[in-house]
Amino acid sequence: MNLGLENKVALITGGSKGIGFQTAMDLSREGASVAIVARNQDALNEAKEQIRQETGKEVLAISADVSKESECKRIVEETVAHFGKLHILVNNAGTAAANSFEDVDGEAWQKDLDLKLGGTIHTSRYAIPHMKEQGGGSIVNLAAVVAKTPPANSLPSSVSRSAGLALTQAMSKDLGKHNIRVNAVCIGLIRSDQIEKMWQNKRPDLTWDEFSAETGKGIPLGRIGDTHEASNVITFLVSDAASYVTGTSVNIDGGSGNAL
């Protein structure tokens, strides 16, 4: 299948590691030019070089904090100044913050909302005019399965992510007339640095496959997901193959979610 990503330009926040990095790698393999954003310049440089070596594509690495509106504006401007255009935005930046309601103070609420919701809002706002110039574009907002059915001790992340789903729906309705598609993916248990540390700290006696099966006992597919399984879905959603898909959210969770 031709995904139609050749010569497209993509901007990916949280692009130095995990799902963001794998998505940048996959989009590059499909012929897109990619700008990756993260706060740690060393991690960005390492990711940039790995993508370049494996795909032969040029990668722009931008150090920024997308919890600040001025930084969101800057990363879009730098991407367009470098590549001359922008077609795709993947709003992936975010951290895991999960506590009970009484344990989250005002500062923690604001920090989480600024990063996950504010970063998505502001980066999208500055990217959209450039997508209009290209006759359309695609935005994918990363959320989590807890955004649909928040459990106890999931704050403030579940609330920020739930707001992100509402934002995705509203944006898709407003931007459809400009041929800009907006979708979300809801991530479940996916292999990450945090999961790797848990494995090494708690069960170093197990192989990864054994640890994955043990940890994923409550997941219908019986294991932890891999980053490429998430990036495959994101790559499809931003591609021409998904040209009639907008305003939806896709669970990437091995069947663990309790809501469609």
TrEMBL record:
Signal peptide: none annotated. This is SDR family NAD(P)-dependent oxidoreductase. The keyword Ribonucleoprotein does not apply. Belongs to the short-chain dehydrogenases/reductases (SDR) family. Gene3D superfamilies: NAD(P)-binding Rossmann-like Domain (3.40.50.720). Its EC number is 1.1.1.-. One of its GO terms (molecular function) is oxidoreductase activity. Keywords: Oxidoreductase. It comes from the Bacteria. Transmembrane segments: none annotated. SUPFAM superfamilies: NAD(P)-binding Rossmann-fold domains. It holds the Pfam family adh_short_C2.
